[in-house]
Amino acid sequence: MKRIIAIVLVLGAVTAFAAQRQLPAKDRIVVLISLDGFPGFALEDPKQPVPTLRRLIRDGTWSRMHTVNPTITWPNHTTMVTGVHADEHGLRLNGTILRTNGWPPVRIDPKVDKEKMVHAPTVYDAAHKAGLTTAQVDWVAINNAPTITWAFNEWATADGPLEREMIERGVLTTNEVQDFTRLNIVWRDQVWTKAAAYLIRQHKPNLMLFHLLTLDATHHRYGPKTLAATGAMAFLDSCVAQVVEAVHQAGMAERTTFFVVSDHGFKGYTNEIRTAVALASAGLTNAAHVLPEGGTAFLYLNPTNSPEVSLKVIEFMKSVEGIADVITPDRFAALGLPQPGKDPQMFDLLLAAKSGYSFSGATGGAVTAAVLQQAGSHGYLASDPDLDGIFIASGYGVKPGATLDEVRSIDIAPTIARLLGVSLPKVKGKALPLQ
What CATH code is assigned to 2-266+383-420? Predict the structure, then answer.
């Protein structure tokens, strides 16, 4: 721990030195660390026990980051690497939505290959095309991506190429990845951190994408602004410190830019809306199907409905306790969402919950019910400031104290592209002024 603290303490001096040099693109390193579910408001609390993040901020800069709709993990992570909204990159939730040609009308597949799942060029595609090396640890919507040089997947197994390499070198044991997806999330975050540090020390990728999940899981169970959430933030800070240490051990500090981001914030809730129960209570079970996504829900109308039945569904949903809005397709474009007819994944209506409520997939009990203790959700409309994430920049190419008027998740990809000297021409975001 003393070693980690000492290394983090010198980051400021390294940053100041690195900013004075212009390195060839092939020598530059960008490490993008995503702390899933870290709200902007949490980092504004000076008492959060996150000394590594504070040090990175002191030697660089930070801001809240505006997220995109839907405020869900995979859509926002995909926006951060493509620089476009969900209407272009193809992610609506945590996987690809596939039509079943039956009822229910859709199912979700999280293991569709990246080339079919992501419909826009990514910054790691651009880096690979430019001859740079890329790596990912637990990133999302990236299955079998041909432009990732080294991968340690969310679904790690002892048979994976990088896992085998680490096991053969004594860095990882087979037991650590045995039945990996069933292990608790804190353990998995520790293993992913070990993999990220190993990749940096041994392979020195030009672009590293690294994603941690403990805080998201903790917020879902206990809600934000709780002791459990504070403890999860402290744990993640220690994971970031290990990655910073690995960069120094690899001799890459002078040429590395750190970005620490999050995909969305969080809101606490005390009541859940059971849409399946609601539809059944109105005799509309076969008229609509709903995918609950926390603060919003995706509603698919049965194409065999008469206009009168579909209108009845809309009017009924407006009357359900806890639903703040029933958003129709004429309002989708303003939310960065495509029209249903242009995208087979798209829903017919978007349901938005009131503050204090979250949509649930429960099929029994009351339509709206109190939960036993506060829990947490995201998925609320991105216009809610509680859904803002975080953006921290530090290291090569970042001026300490740089002023950032506004940071949006669509700005991350073009900022990385500029730092790596690669082309990503179709982005909707803009490169951030870090100098």
Answer: 3.40.720.10
